[in-house]
Design a protein that fits this description.
The complex is a heterodimer of chains A (293) and B (508). Chain A contains 10 helices and no strands. Chain A is mainly alpha-helical and 293 residues long. The longest helix of chain A is centred in the C-terminal third of the chain and has 38 residues, at 196-233. Chain B has 508 residues and is of the alpha+beta class. Chain B has 3 domains: 2-33 and 69-187, Dipeptide-binding Protein, Domain 1 (Dipeptide-binding Protein, domain 1, Alpha-Beta Complex); 34-52 and 189-264 and 481-508, Periplasmic binding protein-like II (D-Maltodextrin-Binding Protein, domain 2); 271-477, Dipeptide-binding Protein, domain 3 (Roll). In chain B, the strands form 5 sheets. In chain B, strands 1, 10, 11, 12, 13, 14, 15, 18, 19 and 20 form a 10-stranded mixed beta sheet that branches. The longest helix of chain B has 22 residues, at 12-33. Chain B is globular, with a radius of gyration of 25 Å. Classes of the chains: A mainly alpha (293), B alpha+beta (508). Chains A and B meet through loops of A and helix 6, helix 7, helix 9, helix 11 and strand 17 of B.
Chain lengths: 293, 508
């Protein structure tokens, strides 16, 4: 039953929070750099096909192994494909795969984490023992196992990220929920007879959000690494798709001959991972995660 | 400069004197070099199976070739040469081969090599119950007997013009009578194993009692194992190894104009076959096969994938290296994407044909798949490339099952192998499931006739068949690429790098 004025107030408050967040991020050069770079990568991913000069799969045999030039700013590879266009297309790919994989992990992890830890008892025990056993396996190993049985494809890479990171997100959520659920305002809401869904959504979730934001950013940076590693190992995205890890792997033998085919995708992976990490650090500082009780 | 001087030496008598002097110098040099000296460090892939019956990779065969001896060897020009057997006689019916063994050959433990060792070796390799990789190859041997202390007689069930090549199969190094455990490396070969660190290196020294004069040339041989060719080339550039073979094209090219390193490049009959299963849809429709052949531009593939270093193929495994057997007139249909599209339409694929293309992740095969995808797209094929580790591609015989795939085949000294093993109706590795009785009759005849002219005619007819209608595309034959540090002499790279003679190398 929100009246227009109240709705406007919420919007104003929310945009105020965004502004505070941005101001906080840009108060320090490191997080400002991280935020800017990450935003630039995101923008490039969104605009990708409209700004790249060539198709990422287009082979031009007349222009094979060309060093960087005005026509091909990042040069071309041994099949005459434009490296810049491939790096940009790979950017879009990595946001799609790592981004949506992380999103699924965060959504599922939050839901399961909230419900199980709030409920407590055997549900919590069983859920977290299962998650702990998943966490005992290194993410890359788990990914290789899953891809070995699912077969390499985009969907399975996405599923692998979700499976690998859901338990971690759920753990973070749990640590906040355990603390929050004994707070007086939560107890008060329960005493008032509010439904579990209401208590979780309105009273508990807001206190989880800052930690969740930081965790999502961190997970995203790990997911980028995971997608790139799987591509490098040849079990993730398949050729001729312009996956960064795959491009690095394919360019290994060309390290002396056409070093630019190796340098630019490798640089893109490093830059994006560093940017997202700096952003996560900034978020942590601005949202005071870890300091708030 | 030298030639000018030579021309200036006018008088014949003077020439004779100069030539004699030069010869004396050469002989003197050879004598001075005859005692093994120096060290040769060879980079190679990591060997894993060192039981001769199972060894197969270049690295594994290189180890065998250094430690053991073959009965007969095949040189870089595909000619059979003596090794443990110094001479042989073939009966007029072509069914009995008698070999005389070197009388001064000894095992590394000092005991002499006898005919019994040869009998044991081949009885082991041909035992049908043991199901070894060589069981089929030697199935037509009726008996192997020691007809003297240093004389071995092979009797065949049917004539085989390539029998000497078969005896020189990569697996067929002569092992000591009764050996079942091959970790002692008790061979008769030019090098003696001093230490072996699996996954790292093997250190060998010259066999002081080796029976072949002048061999080996180096006192010490180190085989250093690499899992990544880029790392191997870095080691070569950095001076940690002296010789590397089986180099990927880009790494080979990166060594151009590198001081102190000479590049090696020999043509081979090794190839990648792009094959379509022909016993079920869509490959069982000859129009689809023809469309595939029409869609491929072999020259463009050779230029792009081998950077022009390969030799263009004609969709048959019989390449130009086989000289008389090769027929340059057997040509696949001229590239014509429009006609291919038309054929696909007639075959019932008006909107194009969607196919998964499976390929192992090794060598230039992923590149070939990517270039092929683009070429075939112009003709209406919608190709989904699936690159797999070799363990997956070859595991569970998946490669024999998939509809569309790329498989690498190594170079062999004679063509009959490919026909017997990959194209005859009931061939063990008939991945395209090609079955043509007329073709099989030609293969059978070529593999048994002792009439060389007849064999040539058979092979030419086989090539015409495969080029026009065979469900395979062989776009190029790849070269064997390597590099060696300056100053080393005597090394001759062979098509199968593992069979190159390391004992012939002399250190600077």
């Amino acid at each position: 039953m929100a009246r227009p004025a109240a709705a406007a107030g919420i919007v104003r408050r929310r945009s105020g929070a965004w502004r505070r967040l941005l101001r906080g991020l840009y108060a320090r050069p490191s997080s400002a750099l991280g935020a800017t770079l990450a935003a630039a990568f995101l923008l490039l991913a969104l605009l990708g096909p409209w700004v790249t000069p060539y198709g990422p799969l287009d082979q031009d045999f007349a222009a094979r192994s060309q060093p960087p030039s005005p026509a091909h700013p990042f040069g071309t590879d041994h099949l005459g494909r434009d490296v810049l266009s491939r790096v940009v297309a790979g950017d879009r790919d990595i946001f799609l795969l790592a981004g949506s994989g992380t999103l699924v992990a965060v959504l599922v992890g939050t839901l399961v984490g909230l419900a199980a830890s709030y409920r407590g008892g055997w549900v919590e025990e069983v859920t977290y023992r299962v998650f702990d056993s998943l966490l005992a396996i290194p993410a890359l190993l788990l990914a290789l196992l899953l891809l070995g049985s699912l077969g390499p494809s985009r969907v399975s890479v996405l599923a692998v990220i979700a499976v690998a990171y859901t338990p971690i997100v759920a753990r973070v959520v749990r640590s906040v929920v355990l603390d929050t659920k004994t707070k007086e305002y939560v107890l008060a809401a329960r005493m008032q007879g509010e439904s579990t869904a209401f208590v979780l959504g309105r009273e508990v979730l807001p206190s989880v959000l800052p930690a969740l934001a930081v965790e999502s950013a961190l997970r995203f940076s790990y997911a980028i690494f995971l997608v790139a590693s799987l591509g490098f190992l040849g079990v993730g995205v398949q050729p001729p798709n312009p996956d960064w890890g795959l491009m690095v792997s394919e360019a290994r033998d060309y390290v002396y001959l056409t070093p630019w085919t190796l340098t630019f995708p490798a640089l893109a992976i490093s830059l994006l991972v560093i940017a997202v990490n700096l952003l996560a650090d900034g978020l942590k500082r601005v949202l005071q995660v870890g300091d708030t009780p | 400069m030298f030639m000018n001087v030579w021309k200036n030496v006018r008088r014949t008598r003077l020439r004779t004197v100069v030539a004699a002097l030069a010869a004396a110098l050469l002989v003197g040099g050879a004598v001075a070099q005859s005692a093994p000296s120096g060290t040769l460090r060879v980079g190679m892939e990591t060997p894993s199976k060192l039981d001769p019956a199972y060894a197969s990779s270049d690295a594994e065969i290189a180890v065998l070739n250094a430690v053991y001896d073959y009965l007969v060897d095949v040189d870089a020009d595909n000619n059979v040469q003596p090794r443990l057997a110094t001479s042989w006689k073939v009966s007029s019916d072509g069914l009995t081969y008698t070999f005389e063994l070197a009388t001064d050959a000894t095992w590394h433990d000092g005991s002499p090599v006898t005919a019994q060792d040869v009998v044991y070796t081949f009885d082991r390799l041909r035992d049908p119950a043991a199901k070894l990789p060589t069981s089929d190859l030697y199935a037509d041997i009726a008996s192997v007997t020691a007809s003297g202390p240093h004389q071995v007689t092979f009797t065949l069930k049917k004539t085989n013009p390539f029998f000497l090549y078969d005896l020189s199969d990569n697996h067929a190094v002569i092992v000591k009578n009764g050996t079942t455990d091959f970790t002692a490396f008790d061979g008769s070969g030019p090098f003696v194993v001093q230490s072996y660190h699996p996954d790292d290196r093997m250190e060998l020294t010259a066999n002081p009692h080796y029976f072949m004069p002048g061999k080996p040339g180096v006192a010490k041989l180190e085989l250093i194992f690499f899992s990544d060719p880029a790392a191997e080339v870095s080691a070569l550039r950095g001076g940690q190894i002296d010789l590397a073979t089986r180099l990927p094209t880009p790494l080979y090219q990166s060594l151009a104009n590198v001081k102190g390193i000479a590049r090696l490049d020999v043509p081979t009959n090794g190839f990648n076959v792009i094959r379509l299963r022909s016993d079920r849809a869509p490959g069982n429709d000859p129009r689809v096969v023809e469309a595939l052949k029409l869609a491929v531009d072999r020259q463009a593939i050779t230029d792009a994938v081998t950077q022009g270093l390969g030799a263009v193929g004609n969709d048959t495994p019989i390449g130009p290296l086989y000289k008389a057997y090769y027929d340059p007139n057997a040509q696949p249909p001229q590239t014509d994407a429009a006609k291919a599209r038309e054929l696909l339409k007639e075959a019932g694929y008006p909107d194009g044909l969607k196919l998964d293309l499976h390929t192992p992740n090794t060598g230039d095969r992923p590149d070939l798949a990517v270039v092929l995808k683009q070429q075939l797209a112009k003709a209406g094929f919608d190709i989904n490339v699936i690159v797999e580790p070799e363990s997956v591609y070859y595991g569970d015989n998946k490669w024999l099952d998939v509809d569309f795939g790329i498989t690498g085949w190594g170079s062999r000294p004679y063509p009959q192998f490919y026909l017997n093993v990959m194209l005859a109706c009931n061939a063990k590795w008939n991945e395209s499931h090609y079955c043509n009785p007329a073709f099989d009759a030609l293969v059978e005849d070529a593999g048994t006739t002792l009439d060389a002219a007849k064999r040539v005619a058979d092979y030419h007819e086989i090539q015409a068949m495969l080029a026009s209608t065979g469900p395979i595309v062989i776009p190029y034959f790849f070269p064997q690429l390597g590099a060696i540090r300056d100053g080393f002499s005597g090394y001759q790279l062979k098509a199968f790098a593992g069979r190159s003679d390391l004992a012939a190398v002399h250190a600077p």
